[in-house]
Every structure is written in structure tokens, then in C-alpha cells.
Design goal:
Blueprint (H helix, E strand, L loop, with lengths): L8 H13 L2 H12 L12 H4 L27 E6 L4 E6 L7 H10 L4 E4 L4 E2 L2 E2 L15 E3 L4 E11 L2 E10 L5 E9 L11 H14 L10 E3 L6 H18 L6 H8 L10 H37 L8 H6 L13 H14 L12 H4 L20 H9 L6 H44 L1
Parallel strand pairs: 2-10, 3-9, 3-10
Antiparallel strand pairs: 1-2, 4-5, 6-7, 7-8, 8-9
Length: 448
């Protein structure tokens, strides 16, 4: 059935041909005439005890696909499971709950393990009630719904307003087992009854939000999709989602949209309620495919950039022998030597070249310098911020300088102190070098 050699471009051609000939009504009526031959029954929906559970007297669920409730006084609810095998999807399409079926609705959500509810209508449309307000009217436990008939409670955890739709999060608790689940609620508010959204782009943004949540995935229970009757807007939503899923799964192959509508109508009557809704579904599928292709191109570009970066290799390091054998391009800077270290080395050399009684000194650069009077340890007062520096100069220059004999005594005293320091350092240094030589000798002996 699906071995068609045509591509997705032929879908646009079909759309343009129908558009040019203004044949949407004819195409829609042809689908309706084909479905009149379906042999499916609605016996349970027409039972006397179940008639009041239907919102409309001409929209009934087929017996072979209807949802059957398990722990309720009645097993009936106006809802059908609609599979689309080619898309690997299942949907539950249902009417907007009545006041008497709110418990049945939430029991269906619980028993079918659904994780998402898609609501495509307002509560009031054209001054008529199209759906009962079936969820808590506030956030928090104080607004919690207690459904004793089906042993469930429903609490609204959060509500977020977005352009054109609301998102809500509900917590459903089984009163017997205390087991709970979180269910997302997506409420689209800009789709008029028996009409279509003004643009497919806003609708596709809404659909993408629901898809990203995972509520439509095959790994969880089927999502609950409803409007007022559960056939027009609900059928259009499921048709667009199913076709886009097939495109993503199979690629740019031709999809017979009209045939998919016929297949879906085998599970619930009347899906796609007007010729305008069928036309809108075509437009949304075509625009949705363009968005998918843009996404694939973007993903490919990102992947190719990542691969290109990964293929780049770092330059090889220079040969180790060359870097070790050649002299550096410019000489390394000299290691700065501290003044104290230089003085110590100079002192050790002088000590090794003389005996303990040797009084000959090797004067350093500092010793050759005669300390001027103003650098001696005079009792100099440090000037404060308020006292000018010139005052200090006058105080130093006004003090009398020492005579020549005093200078000689001072130099002799400094020389004696330096000799004493050299003699005190000689023995520790000699012992250190002695121990070092002994250690080297022992190490050599043990090694050989």
C-alpha cells in the first residue's frame, strides 16, 4: 500500500491542484461517502443507561475501539483508541467531559496510564458551554478535586500562560494505594469551533511543545485529546501529528493524507469535521515538514562542525635531541646573587687561605668605603609630615665631625670584629666539608 514512488513534493502539488480548482468540499465529501460503508456499530453508546453520558446525540464511539472503564459503576465513556500504525502512535479521542462524567474522565486518564491531556476548546464558545470545568480551579491542595466515586484525587501543581495556550501540571492520587502520577495538561485556546486557527505556524509551535514533553510518545500511555465533540479539532490535531511523525520516521516519501484520514475514521467516526479543517491539516503538514528539514540541516551543520574540529591535530613538538643539543637562541639571563650570599662566599675563600692566627684581612667593597658622618648611628630624629626635610639636614650638618684618630679607632674595631666572625665560621665549615668527604668515600666503597 505504501510502495509509492512519489515524494513529499507531490503532496504540495496535490494541495496546489485542489486549491486552484477550489475542490476542497468535493474531496471532503468523497471521504464522507467512503466512510458510510464502514460496518462498525455503536451499540453501547445507544443503550438507555449510557445515552445521558454522551454530549451530542450524533457522535458515538465505535464498540470495537471504545475505552472500557474497569473500576466504575459503568464501563462506558464516550472515547475511542485511535491507532496510526505507520506512525507508531495511539491516541484517545474523547468528548469534552460533562459534569456527570468528570470522574469517568480522570479514571480513564489513570487506567490508560496517560501522561498528557490535549484540550483544543474553550469552556464557553458562542455563548454555549462546550466542556465542563473538569480540573481544579486553583493551585494547591485546598483546591484539590476529590472523586470518591472512582477513588481518585486531582491536584493542580502549576499553571503557566503562554501565547495562545496554557500548560498545567496535575497530580493524580489513587486513594486506595496512595500511588500518584503527574499528568501534563495542554490547553489551546485560539481554535474556534468548526473553524481553523488563523495560521498553521502558531499551531505548529503548540504541537512542538506537546511533542517535546514526551506526552505523545509510544513508551507511555496514549494521550487524551479532546475538544467539544472529540472529532473535528481533535481529529485534525492527531492527523497532523501522525503525518509529521511518519515523515520524520520514513523521510521525504509521499503520504496519502486522505487515506490516513480514512484509516483513522475506522476507529472513531467523523474525524475532521469540515473541508476547511482538512485544508488546514494539509497546510500544517507542509509547513511542519519545512520546519523538520530546517532542523535536519541545522543538525547536520552542527555535526559537521564538530567533526571538523575533532579532525584537527596539534603540531608535533620539536625533536628532543635538537632542543637539547643546540645553544639557546639568546643567552639565558644571569642568576641574580644576593649581597649576603656574595659576602659569605668571599669570607669563606679568605678563611681557607689563612690560618686562625692570621690577622691579614681582605677588605670588601663596603670596608674600603669610609662611612660618612651623616650615615653613622647618630641620634637622628625622623621628620614628621609637618616637619620639612631641610630641618633634618641642618641638624646633621650642625653636629661636629670626628677627628682622624677617632676614625682610625673605628676602622680597627670593625676589622677586629670581622676577623672574629671569620674564625667562628672556620670550624663549622671545616667539619661540614669533612663529613661530606667521608660520606662520599663510604658511598663509593659500598657501591663498588
Amino acid at each position: 500500500m505504501y510502495n509509492d514512488d512519489r515524494t513529499f513534493d507531490d503532496i504540495e502539488k496535490d494541495f496546489n491542484d485542489i486549491e486552484a480548482t477550489k475542490a476542497w468540499t468535493k474531496v471532503y465529501q468523497k471521504i464522507g461517502r467512503t466512510c458510510m460503508s464502514y460496518p462498525y456499530t455503536c451499540t453501547e453508546a445507544k443503550r438507555l443507561e449510557n445515552k445521558e453520558l454522551n454530549r451530542y446525540r450524533d457522535v458515538y464511539p465505535f464498540d470495537h475501539t471504545r475505552v472500557i472503564l474497569k473500576r466504575s459503576k459503568t464501563d462506558y465513556i464516550n472515547a475511542n483508541i485511535v491507532p496510526v500504525d505507520r506512525a507508531d502512535k495511539k491516541y484517545i479521542l474523547t468528548q469534552g467531559p460533562l459534569g456527570s462524567t468528570v470522574g469517568h474522565f480522570w479514571l480513564m486518564v489513570w487506567e490508560q496510564n496517560s501522561r498528557g491531556i490535549v484540550m483544543l476548546n474553550k469552556i464557553i464558545e458562542k455563548n454555549e458551554c462546550k466542556c465542563f470545568y473538569y480540573w481544579p480551579q486553583g493551585t494547591g491542595e485546598e483546591f484539590k478535586l476529590v472523586l470518591n466515586e472512582v477513588k481518585l484525587t486531582v491536584e493542580q501543581i502549576s499553571e503557566t500562560e503562554n501565547p495562545g495556550y496554557f500548560t498545567r501540571l496535575f497530580k493524580i492520587v489513587d486513594m486506595d494505594t496512595l500511588e500518584y502520577r503527574l499528568v501534563s495538561h495542554y490547553h489551546y485556546i485560539t481554535w474556534p469551533d468548526f473553524g481553523v486557527p488563523s495560521s498553521p505556524m502558531a499551531f505548529l509551535d503548540f504541537l512542538l511543545t506537546v511533542q517535546k514533553s514526551g506526552a505523545l510518545d509510544a513508551e507511555v500511555g496514549p494521550p487524551i485529546v479532546h475538544c467539544s465533540a472529540g472529532i473535528g479539532r481533535s481529529g485534525t490535531f492527531c492527523l497532523v501529528d501522525a503525518c509529521l511523525s511518519i515523515i520524520e520516521k520514513e523521510g521525504q516519501k509521499y503520504i496519502d493524507i486522505q487515506q490516513i484520514v480514512l484509516e483513522m475514521r475506522k476507529s472513531r467516526m467523523g474525524l475532521i469535521q469540515t473541508a476547511d479543517q482538512l485544508r488546514f491539516a494539509y497546510r500544517a503538514i507542509i509547513e511542519g515538514n519545512k520546519k523538520l528539514q530546517q532542523k535536519h540541516i541545522l543538525d547536520e551543520n552542527i555535526y559537521s562542525e564538530v567533526v571538523e574540529v575533532e579532525e584537527e591535530t596539534a603540531p608535533l613538538p620539536p625533536p628532543r635531541g635538537e632542543s637539547l643539543g643546540k645553544a639557546p637562541a639568546r643567552p639565558l639571563p644571569a642568576i641574580p646573587a644576593s649581597a649576603s650570599l656574595g659576602n659569605m662566599i668571599h669570607a669563606l675563600i679568605s678563611e681557607w687561605s689563612s690560618s686562625d692566627d692570621d690577622t691579614i684581612t681582605v677588605p670588601t667593597q663596603d670596608e674600603e668605603k669610609v662611612t660618612p658622618p651623616e650615615e653613622e648611628d647618630n641620634d637622628v630624629t625622623v621628620p614628621t609630615e609637618s616637619e620639612p626635610r631641610s630641618t633634618l639636614r641642618r641638624r646633621n650638618t650642625s653636629e661636629p665631625s670626628e677627628d682622624a684618630p677617632a676614625k682610625k679607632r673605628h676602622a680597627r674595631r670593625s676589622s677586629d670584629q670581622w676577623n672574629a666572625i671569620r674564625r667562628s665560621l672556620f670550624k663549622p665549615v671545616t667539619l661540614t666539608f669533612g663529613f661530606l668527604l667521608v660520606g662520599i668515600f663510604i658511598y663509593s666503597y659500598v657501591k663498588h
